[in-house]
Known about the structure:
The chain is about 40% helix and about 10% strand. Strand 5 (about 165-170), helix 8 (about 185-195) and strand 6 (about 200-205) form a beta-alpha-beta unit. It is globular and about 60 Å long. It has helices spanning about 5-10, 15-30, 45-60, 70-85, 100-110, 125-135, 155-160, 185-195, 220-225, 255-265, 275-285, 290-310, 345-360, 380-395, and strands at about 35, 95, 115-120, 140-145, 165-170, 200-205, 230-235, 250, 325, 360, 365, 375. The strands form three sheets. It has a seven-stranded mixed sheet, sandwiched between helices. A three-stranded antiparallel sheet has the order 9-12-11. A two-stranded parallel ribbon has the order 1-10. It is α/β, with parallel strands linked by helices. The chain folds into two domains: about 5-45 and about 290-395, Aspartate Aminotransferase, domain 1 (Alpha-Beta Complex); about 60-285, Type I PLP-dependent aspartate aminotransferase-like (Major domain) (Aspartate Aminotransferase, domain 2, 3-Layer(aba) Sandwich). The structure holds pyridoxal-5'-phosphate. Pyridoxal-5'-phosphate binds next to helix 5. Its cofactor is pyridoxal 5'-phosphate.
Amino acid sequence: MAFLSDALERVKPSATIAMSSRARELAGEGRDIISLSAGEPDFDTPAHIREAAKAAIDAGHTRYTAVDGIPELKRAICDKFARENGLSYTPAEVTVGTGGKQVLYNALMATLNPGDEVVIPAPYWVSYPDMVLLAGGTPVPVECPMEQDYKLSPQQLEAAITPRTKWLILNSPSNPSGACYTVDELKALGEVLLRHDHVWIMTDDIYEHLTFDGLPFATIAAVEPGLKDRTLTVNGVSKAYAMTGWRIGYGAGPAALIKAMGTLQSQSTSNPCSIAQYAALAALTGPQDYIEESRAVFQRRRDLVVSGLNQCAGITCPTPQGAFYVYPSIAGLIGKTSAKGTSITDDEAFASALLDETGVAVVFGAAFGLGPAFRISYATSDAQLTDAVARIRAFCGGCA
Ligand SMILES: Cc1ncc(COP(=O)(O)O)c(C=O)c1O
């Protein structure tokens, strides 16, 4: 009898975490490594949020809380949805978890039965298909190549839906491509979804505040109110307020789904950290200056990276309008050999040769379901980015 469960046999460890660990290992050996693989802002959590956490400890907010969030935080989340997204939710329609990741996981675990399908546009965040597999469902990736700006078209959605489709996962701005859906694009997807009332929509809006060039953020339950009663809108404080380590995410949707997710959470992790919940409350209700400041920095870094990468032989890098990633194609390098003799057979070979030969850690496209490409997280200093781009240019220039 196998010791590990069949469910665990189906999933693989996160490629992004594996790449970050390998980069850390090489740095530990004394190599000069630039890691562009981690998906987190490189800023400190704003001071007023850190202070709120200290005050929460001193005020004795150190005990178990309501399983899916303290009432004050749920109220603040309702206010946030009303203020920023024009979405009206009651606290019974809101759940708070240990990161957006747990909220997404809870929803899939609470709803999927064997054979249920989940449509996932590719390139996708690495965790979606594996979470679906863990929950016993079947991921249905739909390739959305660079030529269509890495976005799902209404025709592709229509073709992917079957009687077994339970969820469509949308993620805009996207990790890994940075692609953002406009209001019109969401409307067009919404028209398809209105015709298939058995399909629910899980929208992962974690990068909401990182859109560039004045592009307004849009989310499907607001764009197509007819879908609100089968949409779970997921968000969190990790990326918006540089709070990745605090582990607070939230979701809003129909009360019956939210209740089921809370039941699951009550029998697994219970409440998210009490202190972090008070910190998240301060993030959502306090000054919002950090959001605009970080957005401006990320937009400048995006421009630096995109223009540098487009000067590298064999690389084509579109200009994304959100998040802090770029997702360049390396189609022009496949079949070549690096200066040190590695055959670039696919994007995994490219990423591994790039790390070994130049010390730059990126994540290969196959991990996100669409290659040949790679992902750079530009949530690091301008100096590191400039150095990394120069190393990538030298690497590509040496490929023949
Ligand atoms: C697309 C996407 N969704 C969700 C998450 C999870 O964020 P957290 O669990 O920190 O809230 C991440 C983190 O990298 C992400 O990139």
